[in-house]
Fold this protein.
Amino acid sequence: MKRLATFAVFAAFTLAGSALAEEKPSDTAALTASMAVLPCTGQGDATNLHQCELRDTARSFLIAGQREAALRILCETTPAIEVFRPQGALTGGKYEDNIAANRRCLDAMGIKSNQ
């Protein structure tokens, strides 16, 4: 089940990246703005709230036509890091593994890493 979830997140990022590259910014903004979004408030602990705010901020950048900024933020989310970590879940491993996972995520999205 965990592998299926991992594959689903990876597929979503990959498909979103290729679909966004082909669309016009106005088409992307219209599509993104039309999606239903739940507010981040009241969704549990501080970690969950932070992850929700990251996704919401990425969505705002996407609406503003800033695809690269949106993908950079998405690659910082826990699900993205877990997908690109060799160990998977963040329960173990080193901080360096998270940095490497972030770089792999950015590479997969076709974005140069600043690190």
